Amino acid sequence: MTLNVLVCGLGPAGRALAHRCLIRGLSVAVVDPAPKRSWTATYAAWADELPVWLDRRIIAATVDRPIARGIRTHHIDRRYAVLDTERLRESLDIAGAEVYTDRAIALTRDGVTLASGAVLRAERVIDARGLARSPSRAEQTAYGIVVDADRCAGMTSLFMDWCLDNGAPAEAPRSFLYAVPLGQDSMLLEETCLAGRPALGPTELADRLHQRLRARGIPVGGSERVERVRFPVTGGRPGRFRFGAAGGFIHQATGYSVAAALTAADTVAAGDSPWPPKSRVVHGLREAGLRALLTLPPADLPIFFDAFFDLPPELQRAYLSGRTDATGTISAMRTLFARLPRPLQIRIAAATLRLPVSERGRRGSSMME
Question: How far apart are CA 166 and CA 173, in angstroms?
Fold first, then answer.
């Protein structure tokens, strides 16, 4: 009997898709070199992004009004949910699927050749294997530690904090502090390079994080659990037969993709395309937004994000979430552009339109190198 769906890759996107296909009664096979591996990253989403079918017990903690800080402090009027990674994985049950512990090396729309030499056939083959690193792809990197909540008493949850108390020179590529609860007893403190080509490495980020925590009086003993993050934010190719990061689901300006994949899983399970025309427009606009971010000199990033988080909440939401609101995305970008200082407008316009920038300007933006 020919399988209905064959999913390659069992990260959050692939597992969610396989789970929703099984819920629909489809015959499903999955291929992954380590199908039982744990997920080590921390996943989070805006609470209103999560699909209604998702078991709410996978939410480890919520933050009602997380803070973003450029030069000024902004309270984001939107609930933020930090997910319990292991519960999320368990909730995306794939019992009933045929599991192949192998590596897919060649994919067509109806077949997969495995490293073992086996060939599998299905009515639909979906590539959810993620993205490989490449020097041509901008990356997000982060280095974090998990500490007891008592050590962070009084510290607010931070969506991003660009303050320069991490010891980095003012002209160096910028990184920000991300700080969120993982439950009642612990908190993740993470130094993050939003996007770079190349991005900041783990040693530099670790040094910055420890300097920042010393400056804020948060003790670090050295035995804390460490989280390292490194993944491309570009390179995904939108299409019917690719899903998750491989299919362009990563938000180029934030690095978020899990909520988008969870939300689209039912659409793809039903055999429909996750890429209606409006989604392709939004994808292209966000790619332009990333090009703009990569050109900004380090000192201008806090100014840029102050302007962004001054936008009305509905425009922030349109740019940060969802994949089909082309009108809202355009409005957010247009309004943000109008509020930026003139030098930033010139640089962003050049990057968005793929125009050359001055050599002096490029040297000022180490993110471009």
Answer: 12
Which uninterrupted H or E stretch holds 179? strand 176-181
Q: Which residue's structure tokens are 């099984």?
A: 22
| Tokens (6 digits) for 231 | 């993944």
The domains located in the chain, with CATH, are 3-131+235-269 (3.50.50.60), 139-232 (3.30.70), 277-368 (no CATH)
Give every strand in the sheet of 3-8, ordered side by side. 98-101, 28-32, 3-8, 119-127, 111-114, 104-107
**How many angstroms separate the CA atoms of 293 and 269, rounded?**
34
**DSSP element (H, E) containing 301:** helix 301-309
| Helix (H), strand (E) at residue 268 | helix 258-269
CB 270 within 8 Å of CB 24? yes
User: What digits encode the pLDDT tens for the residues 193-236?
Assistant: 999 999 999 999 999 999 999 999 999 988 999 999 999 999 99
pLDDT tens column, 134-187: 999 999 999 999 999 899 888 889 999 999 999 999 899 999 999 999 987 999
To the nearest 5 percent, what fractions of the chain are helix, strand and coil?
35, 25, 40
Residue where the block lists tokens 């931070």: 158
What confidence score (pLDDT) does residue 352 get? 75
φ, ψ for residue 236, nearest 5 deg? -70, 145
Rounded to 5 degrees, φ, ψ at 153 are -55, 130
pLDDT computed for residue 47 by the predictor: 97
Centre a 10 Å sphere on the Cβ of residue 271 and count the other Cβ atoms it contains.
14
Query: What is the residue type of 212?
Result: R
Q: Which of 260, 284, 291 is nearest to 354 (CA)?
A: 291
Contact 6, 114 (CB under 8 A): no
For residue 358, pLDDT over 80 is answered with no
* pLDDT confidence band for 366 (50 / 70 / 90): very low
- The H-or-E segment that residue 119 falls in is strand 119-127
